[in-house]
Amino acid sequence: MKTITHFSELDLTKEYTFSDYLQWQFSERVELLKGFIKQMSPAPSRKHQTTSQNLNFKIYSYFNTKRCSVFAAPFDVRLPIASAKKDTTVVQPDLCIICDESKLDDYGCNGAPD
Description:
Number of helices: 2
CATH topology: tt1808, chain A
Number of domains: 1
CATH class: Alpha Beta
Low-confidence stretches: none
Radius of gyration: 15 Å
Oligomer: single chain
Distance between the termini: 33 Å
CATH architecture: Alpha-Beta Complex
Number of strands: 8
Strand content: 15-25%
């Protein structure tokens, strides 16, 4: 599989999978929704980042003594469809809480966060 180094090399009308996504090495942030590329904003605003950071700190402080993990973006969450053989939805929520460790792998979270 060819490594993609520029966003412009992608065909925005084509369906992609998580395997394809792993080959992309460009600076633009994207998500896959049912196989189709959705560009994310280049960088959230300062206000958004401050709010996200404060919320992340409070939630992390609460879950720090629990058996859950807290992750802030960028963190890949794959949302598999039971009938599909390939992951075609990959999102990067601002904040994720995962209590079921079996969902975690080297690539992020496989399944909906808790």
